[in-house]
Specification:
single chain, about 150 residues, mainly alpha, about 75% helix, about 0% strand
């Protein structure tokens, strides 16, 4: 197995685990929409990860945004990500499979992995916010690198 495949596997396991933990949290609260909430949160994580990649590319390479760019160009992306995740998690009923895999975790492991999910969410949502603040208020339209 090469490094590219290994990194993809680690990333997929992280998102699968995030789905399981969020779903498990809501199921313990007797929420009937636990699986729907979980797949939506994972979809949010995916969307912000893609957005962060665009931002990081823009930091290092100041590419021009087309004049006719519209915010509606993101609509297919916003619709495709939840559709893919719904098919992967809810339709395939993955919660039971993941519960069988991760049921035997110790409290320490759960706490550590839970914090990693929370920190990841804060990071991926925080990057666009910080970028916008820096770009708008501090740089006044100048390039990041000079």
């Amino acid at each position: 197995m090469n490094i590219g495949n290994l990194s993809k596997l680690i990333i997929m396991i992280f998102f699968d685990y995030a789905y399981y933990r969020v779903c498990d949290f809501y199921k313990k609260k007797k929420d009937s929409s636990a699986e729907m909430t979980s797949f939506l949160i994972v979809s949010l994580m995916h969307f912000f990860t893609i957005l962060d990649l665009f931002i990081l590319i823009r930091v290092f390479w100041e590419y021009p945004i087309p004049i006719n760019f519209s915010k509606y160009w993101l609509l297919p992306l916003i619709l495709i990500i939840p559709l893919i995740n719904w098919n992967k998690y809810v339709k395939a009923q993955k919660y039971k499979k993941y519960r069988a895999v991760w049921r035997t975790e110790t409290e320490k492991e759960k706490r550590q992995k839970g914090w990693s999910i929370i920190l990841y969410l804060i990071l991926v949502i925080g990057i666009p916010i910080v970028y916008a603040i820096i770009k708008q208020n501090l740089m006044e339209g100048k390039s990041f690198l000079g």
